[in-house]
Design a protein that fits this description.
Blueprint lengths: L29 E8 L6 E4 L2 H9 L3 E10 L3 E8 L6 E5 L2 H9 L3 E2 L7 E3 L3 E7 L8 E4 L2 H9 L3 E9 L1 E2 L8 E3 L2 E4 L2 E3 L4 E4 L4 E3 L1 E2 L6 E4 H6 L3 E2 L7 E2 L1
Parallel strand pairs: 16-19
Antiparallel strand pairs: 1-2, 1-3, 3-11, 4-5, 4-6, 4-7, 8-9, 8-10, 12-13, 13-14, 14-17, 15-16, 15-18, 17-20
């Protein structure tokens, strides 16, 4: 995991939502974490608060579903905010020392310095770091496909951030879900703002075999100089 980096470079964004599996019941030991995405800054935001979720949706954030099921007790996970990053940026860490170090550098405590989440459970929550992004520089997911896609796309420091009780559930409304993209009629369809990038560096909105492509945001693809495919075929469509 990155240690107190000052973020630089052009904005790159992130992958899909947390390990999206069939919804399960965890109410006795866990709480759902809502995952939202800001298309203007490329940041994902994670919160236990339905009020906060609704407020962000009201100002233009997209709700992507339940990111994961958070433990109700365990080791505290802290959230800090960087007001100097373009559009703002949040960072989550088990290390209170790391959080305090960032605060000493000008970051702000979120949630009054209290735990935003707790680490507990048997499911890995992965983190990846985008060294070129100012906002949305960290992505958190239980989905190993998403994590590996980000690392293949140039993200760094893939690691287990902390433990959670379980994965989440998609609210995309399509026929079935896999990560934060969906499948319908034999096609795998990228989530809003995302794309599948081919070996020829052209990107598509839906493909037949997603394993043959790199999955990333369109902002990330554009910043790398990739281009929307001018036309499609039986295996990929722009």
């Amino acid at each position: 995991m990155k240690k107190f980096l000052v973020f630089l470079g052009a904005f790159l964004s992130l992958g899909v939502a947390g390990a999206i599996t069939a919804p399960q019941t965890y109410a006795a030991t866990s709480s759902p974490v809502y995952r939202l995405y800001n298309h203007n800054t490329g940041e994902h935001f994670y919160t236990l608060s339905q009020t906060e979720k609704n407020n962000l949706q009201n100002v233009g954030w997209s709700y992507e579903g339940i990111g994961w099921q958070a433990a109700k007790q365990g080791k505290p996970v802290y959230r800090v905010y960087n007001p100097q990053a373009a559009g703002g940026d949040h960072y989550y860490t088990l290390s209170k020392y790391e959080a305090q170090t960032l605060v000493n550098k000008g970051w702000h405590w979120d949630n009054g310095g209290k735990a935003a989440f707790y680490s507990g459970g048997k499911v890995n929550l992965y983190v990846a770091y985008n060294p070129h992004a100012q906002s949305g520089s960290h992505n958190y997911t239980t989905n190993s496909f998403e994590q590996n896609s980000l690392l293949k796309g140039g993200w760094k420091y893939g690691a287990v951030a902390w433990k959670v009780q379980g994965g989440g559930s998609s609210t995309s409304g399509s026929n079935s879900s896999n990560g934060n993209y969906t499948t319908s009629g034999g096609w795998t369809i990228a989530a809003n703002g995302y794309c599948f990038v081919s070996d020829s560096n052209l990107y598509y909105s839906k493909v037949k075999n997603p394993k043959n492509y790199r999955y990333m945001t369109r902002a990330q693809a554009n910043s790398k100089g990739y281009h929307l495919a001018p036309k499609g075929n039986g295996y990929a469509q722009p």
